[in-house]
Amino acid sequence: MVPLITRFASCCRSAGLGVSTSEVLDCLCQLDRIDLSGEKAFRTVLRSNFAKSRREQETFDRLYHLFFHDMHADPPGIAKIDPKQQREQEDLLKNLASDHDDPVYQAIMEMMAGNPQALLEQVQEIHTGKPAEGSPLKSNMAAVSKRMEILLQLNRASANLERRAAESGFSPRGAARLKNRLGAARRILSEEPRPHNPGMIKRTAEPQESERGLGTRPFSSLTPGETAEMRQSIGRLVRKLKDIVSRRQNARRRGVIDIKKTLRSAAAYQGVPLEICYRKKAPRKAKIVTLCDISGSVWSASRFMLGLLYSLQDCFSRVHSYVFVSDLMEVTATFEKYDIDTAIGRVLDAPAIACDAPTDYGGTFEAFKSGHFSVLSPKTTLIIMGDGRSNYLDPRAATLDEIRHKCRRIIWLNPEPERFWGTGDSEMRTYQAYCHEVRSCRNLNQLTEFIEDLVL
Q1: What predicted TM-score, i.e. pTM, was given to this entire model?
Q2: 201-238+285-455 CATH fold
């Protein structure tokens, strides 16, 4: 039992699950206390130790089925293998392994022998691998070529299996077991290991018109006159929200009556006069970090959101803002020092931002992680404003997952309609698995609804 569980733990690590030695030891101790003839209890013990969150449960379920069913179960209609067939199968696999010394091919041979760990590591490289050191290319073609390489080696292994089995007179039923494992290997390659994200909130419905006509117009289609009118509407919204927040903070500041403190204070004067003491509780303010795409029509929505956030500075304890196209630049000081229009002009004229460059979301996440990771904390809300179109560059979803674990929540505002998400070079279907909330934010009504939810 111990070798089996340790091999399974190694497979889990190879697929990206964090399984520590202490968790393996806890799992083994718990297995001693259950009836191992019942698979449900056995699977529950492993799952409770190796999948530490709901996001990891789907990955665990897939690995459990692969390891304990695909690798150790015979195909339907195939009798259990006897010792003689076992030796013949081992000889066949040795001959197959000698046909080619490619690492991917050898990983497939280990998979056919019942150990999927090496192949899982190869597939994991597709999703977490980085460009070669010194390579100027940042495209997602590295992942495509790696996937193609594994597929070609799977086809080679399948062809070699047919040839070797015919040459050695190996039983067709015995070959079916190996073909079954090759089929499992193809499924590993075809599956996208996106984490299960059942708690994600998706808001795409059009809210009620708070500003008739103008409130439903997409930001990208506003005329200069409509832009000025919208600024007036935003000003009214800011004053309204500040008034609501101020009243709520005053009410919270008073708090509930503190009986003990009131009685102690009154004892010095025999209770006359009686001064009511309250439990004062400071209002909690959110910490906000924004990442705004300023390429093309996306910037027309981002500028309104940045303007709203900085107009509501009093409602947040701190706001850090970053803009990006292909490179990342912090603009917190610029927006704090100048008014919104002047700040926007300075950002667009900054030499560090090439507005005509292809948008690179993956590179932005890497740059944010390497240079600005310290601004995130368990109290921080990260707001990403962009369409998720990364021009077929590497999306670096694993980096966004690391950012998710550092902050309280990630909210993604997309100025595109949902029907366009995931089309062409859009990586929204990939990124939304790592967000706590995704929203379509194309007009003032939707932006107003979001800001009200964030502030109130």
Answers
A1: 0.73
A2: Rossmann fold (3.40.50)
